[in-house]
Amino acid sequence: xxxQPIAYIHNDFPTKFGLPRQSGLSEHLIxxxxxxxxxxxxxxxxxxxxxxxxxxxxCFEPMGKRASSENNSAKHASSxxxxxxxxxxxxxxxxxxxxxxxxxxxxxxxxxxxxxxxLVRTELTGDRGLVLTVAGADLMDxxxxxxxxxxxPYADSVPDAATGDYGPEHQQxxxxxxxxxxxxxxxEEQLKTLKEVLSFDPRPGYQHDPDRVYGFAYGGYDVRxxxxxxxxxxxxxxxxx
Amino acid sequence: xxxQPIAYIHNDFPTKFGLPRQSGLSEHLIxxxxxxxxxxxxxxxxxxxxxxxxxxxxCFEPMGKRASSENNSAKHASSxxxxxxxxxxxxxxxxxxxxxxxxxxxxxxxxxxxxxxxLVRTELTGDRGLVLTVAGADLMDxxxxxxxxxxxPYADSVPDAATGDYGPEHQQxxxxxxxxxxxxxxxEEQLKTLKEVLSFDPRPGYQHDPDRVYGFAYGGYDVRxxxxxxxxxxxxxxxxx
Lengths: 241, 241
Description:
Two copies of one chain form a homodimer. The first copy, chain A, has two domains: about 5-155, Elongation Factor Tu (Ef-tu), domain 3 (Beta Barrel), CATH 2.40.30.70; about 170-240, YaeB-like fold. Chain A is about 15% helix and about 30% strand. Chain A contains four helices and twelve strands. In chain A, strands 1-2-7-6-3-8 form a six-stranded antiparallel β-barrel. A four-stranded mixed beta sheet of chain A has the order 9-12-11-10, covered by helices on one side. In chain A, strands 4-5 form a two-stranded antiparallel sheet. Chain A starts with 6 loop residues before the first strand and ends with a strand. The relative contact order of chain A is 0.22. At the A-B interface, strand 3, helix 1, strand 5, strand 6 and strand 8 of A face strand 3, helix 1, strand 5, strand 6 and strand 8 of B.
């Protein structure tokens, strides 16, 4: 079955590193969903404001626009995608092997992601049609969206579902220190997002060297930080442009 | 992007009519997920028992096995699927037009469905590898599964999310009457499922003629029923074989 992008995500994260590992953790992480031309009809979204949350179904792999996507699809149709039966989730310390279907790892047979986002607003623009602004997406800039569905609590929500090692107690919340000169580079909203994503400790779970400097791209800067057991400290932000 | 079925659903519902309109409503509706050959490695499911619920991402359209799927995909790649910007959800009485992205309607650009199911058990079989038994799927027999992901409450669950007209108060629960001779045709488990799905009133929201007889296929029988405002009454069950 051939699936086509219906929209692309736009936000301040050009790469995956630094993004929260699951959706919904970062309420300040704002993204815009810009529909592809054939889906810019505002009628397709009639009533969507009645819903507070949406599901995004998206593609883990870069997807070009239509023409190149058709070339890719021919390639994919003839040979199955590489996948691994087991993966080692970074947040479990990288030691525990889990079956890929017991994880949300991107390394799976069909590169389909599932993310719950908060609908912040809809806006009818002149050139890009109806644009959705959403909060909490764990998607990097340019991610292709395959579907948008309303969130229905009675069908979708199970607050107490058992999850083994994946409970919220395993989502460490760190203190975050950002020097003033770095803070001055970002808008107030960007700064909130930055603090939030750093509080989730973007380091892989098996790396604990407090002297190692990590970096990720955010809003046009390479944000460099260290972390000990309790605090993420931003060192500098280097302009990428 | 070309997506391939990783598994197919097996249950007692050969057609869509009669199935609950959303997942999770029918806790007795049992389905088995039988993996395609290349995914029968039990390692791919290691640790899945730690999770109480799973997400199924599936395809609204019939998908054949690999060979025919490739033919279909060529067709789909060259022409976009028919879709409609607005739909009239049956449960809203068929009068209110909603944008397709504000509904879970199957009539959408990419035929992707999303269903939350309870994991009942996993079983290693000789001929079909690891088979998952799940409860609450709103999928008909033979539906192609594209992905299986664990349910993570902290990322996925928002019990109080606003939903306009789609709240649980709009899920009418009917009394159900099944005569003994019909009940005798089904197993105890099938009978529970049958009562449950009938309690959701499978009729379209805009049809209220108490004398009209409806039928749907379940477990090899055409189950025929009438309904008034409070009660669904099964008339007979006709063997389909």
